[in-house]
Write a structure and sequence with these properties.
Chain A: It is found in: Cell membrane. Chain A: It is a multi-pass membrane protein. Chain A: Keywords: Cell membrane, Membrane, Transmembrane, Transmembrane helix. The complex is a heterodimer of chains A (344) and B (449). Chain A is built from 14 helices and 4 strands. With 344 residues, chain A is mostly helical. The C terminus of chain A is likely disordered. Chain B has a two-stranded antiparallel ribbon with strand order 1-2. Chain B has a two-stranded antiparallel ribbon with strand order 3-6. A two-stranded antiparallel ribbon of chain B has the order 4-5. The chains are: A mainly alpha (344), B mainly alpha (449). Chains A and B meet through helix 2, helix 3, helix 4, strand 2 and helix 13 of A and helix 2, helix 3 and helix 14 of B.
C-alpha cells in the first residue's frame, strides 16, 4: 500500500470539518438565541424574517457537520471512543439532550401553525448551552481531568467544575457564537437590503466584539496555567494567532464603518481559522493529552486508506451539492430579499 | 440494577424510538416521489398537494429522526466504548459512508422543501427527489451493514487477542448484509406506505371535510399500491432471512422457534407457552414440517436445535413472541392491501365501506409494530454477543458511573419529543382541509370553483 501519513490526513480532515461546524453551528446557535431575544425585546417583527429565511433550509446540514466529526474521529482514532466515550458519559449525554431539544423544537416551531414563545425559548437558550457543553470536550482534551486506574478511565468532575481554564473556554464558546452569528446576520440582512434589521444586527455584533477580544486573550493566559507545554508550543505559532487578532480587528473596523460586509465576514472566518488551526497544530501530536497520540492511536492502515478514499469521493459529491444549497438560499438575491415567487 | 442491563435498556429505548422515525425517514421519500410524479404526469394538483402536505409533515418527523440518529451515533461510544474501539478498527467504513449519504440527503431535502414554486419546469423540482431517495435508502443500507457485522462479523482474523488482516470492504459486505438490507429497505417502504394509507383511511372515516373525500381516496389507492408491492418484497425478504439464519445463525432461528432437538421435518411453532424444564411447548399452533421447509425449501432440511448450542450462547427465548408478532402484523398489512384490490377490481362492493376503512386504518400502526418487533427480535436474538463469536455485550459496557440517571433522562426526553411531535402533526393536519391546501398552493380545487 502507498506510504501515506494517515495520522496526519485523518486529523487534518477532521479538524477542517470541526472548523466548518464551528462556523455554521455558531451562526445557527446564535441566530436561535437572537430570535428569542428579539421576541422578548419587541424587535421580532424587524429581524425574525431574516433569521427564519436563513435558518429554515440549512439547519439539518449544520447537524451533519457534527455527526461527521464524531463518526470520523472514532473511525480514524478508535481509542477516542474508549477514552472520551467512557469519561464523557454524563457531559456527552447532557450535550445530546440539549441538541435534541434544540433540533426538534426548531422544527416543531417552524412547522406549527402558531409559533410558541416557549418553544422559541427552548431553541434559543439551548443554542448557548450546547456550545458551552461541547466546548467541555476540548477542555478535557488538554489533559488533567481524566485519570486511568485499575477501574478504568475516570473523569474528575470536581477538578473540571473548579477549573478556571474550563470556564474560560466555556465563555469563549458562548461569546464566539454570539459574535460570529451577529456578524453573519448583519451581512445577510444587508444582502436582503433590510436596513433596519442590518442596523440591529450590527449593533449586536459591535456589542459582542469587545468581549470577544478580551476572552480570546484570556483563554491564552489560562491555557498557560493549565497546560504549560501546550502553551509553549502555541508560542511557536505566534504568527497564526497574530494574524487572527489582525483579521478580527479589520473585520470589526469594517462592520463599524458598514463597509464591505461580505469581506468583513470572510475576515471573521479567517480570524477563527487562524486561531483554530493554530490551536490544533500546537496541540499535536495529542488528541487527548496524554492518552491519545495520533501516531500511536491511528486506525489500521487498510481502514485509514478506505476512509480516506471514501472521504475524497464524498467531497466530490458534497461540494457541488453544498454549492447549490448556498447558491439557492444564501447567494440568491431574490430568495434573500424575499422575492422568490417569480420563479425561474 | 446491573450495568450491562442498564446499558442495554438505554440503547433499546434509543433505538426503539429512533426506528420509528428512521423507518418513516427512509420510506416516505419514495412515496412523495411517486405522488409528485403522478401529479406532474397527470397534471393533477391533488397528487401534487399530497406530495406537498406529506413533505410538510415529513419535516417534523425527519427532525426527530435526525436528533435521535445523532443520539444513537454518539451513544454507541458513550455506553459501549470497548465495542466502538474495536468496531472502529473494522467497521468504521460504512458508518462513515452513512454520514455522507445522510449529508447528501439533508442538503437536497433542504432544497426540495423550499423550492416548490421556484422552478418553471416542475420536472426539475421532481428530480430533487432522486438524491433524497438515494441518500435516505443508502443511509439505511450502510447502517444495516454495521448491524449485520455485529451478527455475522467478517473481514478480519484473530491472532492472539489481536485483530489482523483487516479488510474493511469484506467487513462491510459481511455474509448477512444482503439479506438484511433487503429486509430493512423493503419494510421501510412498506411501513411508510401503510402509515400514509392509515391516515387516508382515518380521514375518510372521520369525513370532517366532505370535499376532501376524492383526495383521500386517491391517496389510499396510491399508498395501497405501493404497500402491496413492497409487502410482497417483504415476504420474499422474510423467506431469504429464514434460510439465511438457518445457514449462518442457527442459534437465533432455534431460539425464535423454541426448537430444541436437531431434526428434519421440524414444525413451525406459532405462539404458545414454553415449559423450559421439560422443553415442551403448550397451546401453540403447530404447522407440521414447515420450519424445515422454510429453512431449506425441503422437509428433509435438518434444523439445528438449542440442545446442540452451548447454553451460555442461547439467545433469550422471549424472541419467539417478537418473531410471531412481526410475521402476523406484517401479513395483516399485506392481507388488507390484497383485500382492497380484490374488492376494487373483482367485486361490486364499495372498497371504501366504513368497516373496510377500519381494517385499512390498522395496517399502518401494525406495520410499525412489526418493525419494532422485528428489531427486538434481531437485537435480542444476537445476545449474548455484541460482535457474535468475538465480544460479549457484558465485555463492552462502559465502566463509568451514572447509567441510571442517563437512562431516566433519555426516557423523559423521548416521551417529551414523542408527545410534542404527535401534537404538532395532529395540529398541522387536523383542522386543515386538503382541498384548502390545494387552493392555497395552486389556486384550484373545490374552494376555487
Amino acid at each position: 500500500m502507498m506510504e501515506l501519513n494517515f495520522e496526519m490526513i485523518g486529523i487534518t480532515v477532521l479538524w477542517t470539518f470541526l472548523y466548518g461546524y464551528v462556523i455554521v453551528a455558531s451562526i445557527d446557535f446564535g441566530a436561535g438565541f437572537f430570535n428569542y431575544y428579539a421576541m422578548e425585546t419587541g424587535q421580532h417583527q424587524k429581524v425574525s424574517h431574516i433569521i427564519q429565511r436563513y435558518l429554515s433550509p440549512v439547519w439539518e446540514t449544520t447537524n451533519v457537520f457534527f455527526v461527521f466529526f464524531f463518526v470520523g474521529i472514532v473511525g480514524f482514532y478508535p481509542d477516542t471512543a474508549y477514552y472520551l466515550g467512557t469519561s464523557l458519559l454524563i457531559p456527552g449525554s447532557i450535550a445530546l439532550i440539549l441538541l435534541s431539544i434544540r433540533g426538534s423544537y426548531y422544527a416543531f416551531n417552524s412547522s406549527a401553525t402558531k409559533p410558541r414563545k416557549s418553544w422559541a425559548f427552548l431553541y434559543g437558550v439551548t443554542g448557548l448551552l450546547i456550545p458551552a457543553s461541547l466546548s467541555i470536550v476540548l477542555v478535557i482534551s488538554e489533559g488533567g481531568y481524566i485519570y486511568e486506574d485499575a477501574g478504568g478511565v475516570q473523569l474528575d468532575i470536581e477538578e473540571l467544575l473548579f477549573s478556571s481554564y474550563a470556564w474560560t473556554v466555556v465563555f469563549l464558546a458562548i461569546i464566539l457564537v454570539l459574535y460570529v452569528s451577529s456578524g453573519f446576520l448583519t451581512y445577510y440582512a444587508s444582502k436582503a437590503k433590510n436596513k433596519s434589521a442590518m442596523e440591529t444586527f450590527r449593533k449586536w455584533f459591535l456589542i459582542w466584539s469587545l468581549p470577544m477580544i478580551v476572552i480570546s486573550q484570556f483563554t491564552f493566559l489560562s491555557l498557560r496555567e493549565h497546560n504549560f507545554e501546550h502553551f509553549q508550543s502555541a508560542q511557536d505559532y505566534w504568527y497564526l494567532f497574530g494574524l487572527s487578532l489582525l483579521t478580527m480587528l479589520i473585520a470589526i473596523f469594517l462592520f463599524w464603518k458598514r463597509r464591505n460586509l461580505g469581506l468583513a465576514f470572510i475576515l471573521i472566518m479567517l480570524q477563527i481559522a487562524f486561531a483554530f488551526y493554530g490551536y490544533g497544530i500546537s496541540k499535536l501530536p495529542y488528541i487527548l493529552y496524554p492518552f491519545i497520540d495520533i501516531n500511536t492511536s491511528v486506525v489500521n492502515e487498510s481502514m485509514a486508506f478506505a476512509l480516506t478514499i471514501v472521504f475524497i469521493l464524498g467531497l466530490v459529491l458534497l461540494i457541488p451539492s453544498l454549492y447549490l444549497l448556498l447558491r439557492l438560499f444564501i447567494f440568491d438575491k431574490d430568495y434573500v430579499e424575499g422575492r422568490e415567487e417569480e420563479g425561474y | 440494577m446491573d450495568e450491562v442491563l442498564l446499558g442495554r435498556i438505554i440503547t433499546a429505548s434509543t433505538l426503539g424510538f429512533h426506528i420509528i422515525f428512521a423507518t418513516i425517514g427512509v420510506g416516505i421519500p419514495i412515496v412523495i416521489m411517486v405522488m409528485e410524479f403522478l401529479g406532474i404526469r397527470k397534471k393533477d394538483t391533488q397528487y401534487l398537494t399530497m406530495a406537498r402536505r406529506i413533505a410538510k409533515g415529513f419535516t417534523v418527523t425527519i427532525a426527530v429522526g435526525v436528533v435521535t440518529g445523532t443520539i444513537i451515533g454518539l451513544q454507541l461510544s458513550l455506553i459501549w466504548p470497548d465495542f466502538m474501539r474495536l468496531g472502529g478498527q473494522i467497521i468504521a467504513l460504512p458508518l462513515f459512508m452513512e454520514v455522507f449519504a445522510f449529508f447528501f440527503e439533508a442538503i437536497f431535502l433542504g432544497i426540495f422543501l423550499y423550492t416548490w414554486d421556484r422552478f418553471k419546469n416542475p420536472w426539475h423540482h421532481w428530480l430533487l427527489n432522486i438524491p433524497i431517495v438515494v441518500g435516505s435508502t443508502l443511509s439505511a443500507v450502510f447502517i444495516t451493514s454495521v448491524n449485520s457485522f455485529m451478527n455475522t462479523p467478517s473481514g478480519f482474523e484473530l491472532s492472539e487477542e489481536m485483530f489482523v488482516n483487516i479488510d474493511p470492504i469484506a467487513a462491510m459486505l459481511n455474509p448477512s448484509v444482503y439479506v438484511r438490507v433487503f429486509h430493512v429497505v423493503a419494510t421501510a417502504y412498506m411501513t411508510a406506505a401503510f402509515i400514509l394509507g392509515s391516515i387516508a383511511a382515518f380521514k375518510l372515516i372521520k369525513n370532517k371535510f366532505q370535499k376532501d373525500a376524492e383526495y383521500h381516496k386517491k391517496a389510499l389507492k396510491v399508498t395501497m399500491s405501493i404497500g402491496i408491492v413492497t409487502a410482497l418484497l417483504t415476504i420474499l425478504a422474510g423467506d431469504f432471512s429464514a434460510k439465511f439464519l438457518h445457514n449462518e445463525q442457527p442459534e437465533k432461528l432455534a431460539a425464535m422457534e423454541w426448537h430444541y432437538e436437531t431434526e428434519t421435518h421440524a414444525d413451525l411453532v406459532l405462539f404458545g407457552v414454553l415449559d423450559e424444564e421439560n422443553q415442551e411447548v403448550n397451546y401453540a399452533l403447530r404447522i407440521p414440517w414447515a420450519l424445515s421447509f422454510l429453512s431449506g425449501n425441503s422437509f428433509d432440511t435438518e434444523v439445528t436445535g438449542l440442545n446442540d448450542i452451548p447454553e451460555d450462547e442461547h439467545p433469550p427465548l422471549v424472541i419467539h413472541y417478537f418473531f410471531d408478532l412481526m410475521v402476523v402484523f406484517g401479513m395483516y398489512a399485506f392481507g388488507v392491501a390484497l383485500l382492497y384490490f380484490i374488492i376494487k377490481k373483482f367485486t361490486r362492493f364499495n372498497e371504501h365501506h366504513p368497516a373496510l376503512l377500519y381494517l385499512y386504518f390498522l395496517a399502518g400502526p401494525l406495520s410499525m409494530m412489526a418493525i419494532e418487533a422485528g428489531w427486538f427480535l434481531a437485537e435480542m436474538g444476537r445476545q449474548p454477543w455484541i460482535i457474535r463469536g468475538y465480544m460479549r455485550v457484558s465485555e463492552a459496557v462502559t465502566n463509568a458511573d451514572g447509567l441510571g440517571i442517563v437512562l431516566v433522562s433519555f426516557i423523559v426526553l423521548y416521551a417529551v419529543l414523542g408527545f410534542t411531535c404527535s401534537y404538532v402533526l395532529v395540529k398541522m393536519f387536523n383542522n386543515s382541509s386538503a382541498e384548502s391546501s390545494r387552493e392555497e398552493y395552486y389556486g384550484e380545487g373545490v374552494d376555487a370553483k
